[in-house]
Amino acid sequence: MFIESIKKAFELLFTFDNEVYSIVLTTLNITAISVVIAGCFSILLAAFIDLMNPRFKKILTAFFNSLLAIPTVIIGLFVYMFISNSGPLGDFKLLFTPAAIVIGQIILAIPIITSFILAGLSKTDLLLHETLTTLGAKKIDRIKAIVMENRILILSAVLAGFGRIVSELGISMMLGGNIRWYTRTITTAIALETGKGEFALALALGFILIFLAMFINFSAYIVLKNDNLLIFDIILNKVRGKLNRDLREHDIYN
Amino acid sequence: MVRWPQKIRFLLVFCILSIFLSLPALAGERLRLATTTSTADSGILNEIIIPFEKKTGITVDVIAVGTGKALKLGELGDVDLVLVHSREAENEFVANGYGINRKDVMHNDFIILGPKNDPAEIKKSKNAIKAFKKIANNKITFISRGDESGTHIKEKQLWKKVGIIPAGSWYREVGQGMGSVILMTNDLNAYTLADRGTHIAMKNKVNLVICYEGDKSLYNPYGIIAVNPEKHKNINYRDAKSFINWIISPECQKIIKNFKKSGEQLFYPDTVK
Questions:
Q1: What pLDDT, in 10s, does the model give residues B210-240?
Q2: Which pLDDT score is estimated for A130?
Q3: pTM over 0.90
Q4: B70, B84 in Cβ contact below 8 A?
Q5: Per residue in B94-138, pLDDT tens?
Q6: CATH number at A2-226
Q7: Secondary structure of A42-93 as H, E, C letters
Q8: Residue B190 and which of A162, B9, B161, B166 are 20 to 30 A apart at CA?
């Protein structure tokens, strides 16, 4: 069954099966939005906490570490109560939409990314802070410098958050409702197919999930680690060149 | 000022742009239908919904849960429409004012699935209650849905009629969907109460056979109810009504009648013979 399902995974991927692509795209879309929002928020949060006085820092670090233990179904339940039609945010009609999953996953990812970054930041060279302060850096500049100095660490933290989000089932099931063509993600599809006894298909979807995670992790490392990555620079320069040209033309005609 | 390298700024702008670009995909008017796993897993719902969507342009979101939970979602106003199978619970739902416009859609029946050798010898039982009694007396493993689904409610009614409260190591409440329960029953050589539709759909994956069938008390009717728009704001009653009209129309009832899996009819329409 193992080999059969690997075969099936490739078959599904390369025959451009509509449903599988819908599932994979939904997963990627939801995950990307959640990771970006949760990542941006957590980076700032971690940097702020890092600059706090040591006592608060310890308390907050412990707080975020303990939030790691919250099960996804509890987050699902919590968000459900808020966005249900009879809840306080019912008017927005968010339940059973991708947006609902995004909300839940952001809540799930923030403690993970934050405590991951905090753990790494505690190893940052103390001289960095002292140098920045003596150079007259404001708080915002210090945060920027901390983020820049630790960008590889932050990348790993965000990728850890990504891993948790993409593999999470409880929130997607409760808040998304596993709606075909709309909120069915890879994990909810696996749960569904397992329930129906379609083990090979479920396993195939599992392999697709692993491929995706590998692809994203490797490409993220390549983009951020290799400072001289040519393709990226070329694209960037082209975009910039075109922008400049447009601006110049704009100036001439006006 | 510490300047952020271009690459990181570019990445940030790209990310924020991608969020805004994907926002429109999250909006739009839709009809939310909570239903049971049996209708969704067997595939009949797709046959019903796709022509409806083509005709009306309304997108139907199917949330497949047990009957109990589907009705609960209707009660909270989180769906516009429920398609379930437990007459008593449906009547209560309507009587409490949560649902209106209830219509019979289709029916099939429940069956008792078990291992081929039928260890409790229920095959020749006079009725379903006697069959259940034999399973309990012989303490043969019985898998219960345990999730307040229509099948579970029916099973509890039967145990009540038998006059025993099932308990002990032979009685296992697993709290999972019909498909999972059939798979578990297969692995544990146990008995379970299942709806015929799901069994037919899963027939070639398990070694279970129908050990008992045909009793009137195993009748399994499906009804559709619109959620009362007066109970909650934001209920899409207009589209719910047109879906109800569609599902009881002769055209759709014919689709139900012609829906077959491995040559067997799964559901019998109620408004067309």
A1: 999 988 889 999 999 999 999 988 899 999 9
A2: 81
A3: no
A4: yes
A5: 999 999 999 999 999 999 999 999 999 998 888 999 999 999 999
A6: 1.10.3720.10
A7: HHHHHHHHHHCCHHHHHHHHHHHHHHCCCCHHHHHHHHHHHHCCCCCCHHHC
A8: B161
B19: nearest CB among A33, A95, A177: A33
pLDDT tens-digit series, residues A19-67: 888 999 999 999 999 999 999 999 999 988 988 888 999 999 999 999 9
Provide residues of A within 8 Å CB-CB of chain B: 29, 32-33, 36-37, 40, 84-86, 90-91, 93, 95-99, 137, 141, 144-145, 148, 151, 177-180, 182-183, 194-197, 232, 236
Residue with tokens 């009209």: B245
Round to whole Å and give the CA distance between B89 and B81: 15
Q: Where are the domains of chain A?
A: 2-226
> What tokens does B177 get?
């969907």
Q: Using the beta-carbon criterion (under 8 Å), do A97 and B26 form an inter-chain contact?
A: yes
CATH code at B29-108+221-269: 3.40.190.10
- Give CA separation, B123 vs A110, B118, B120, B126, B207, in Å: 57, 7, 9, 9, 16
In chain B, where the domains are located: 29-108+221-269, 109-218
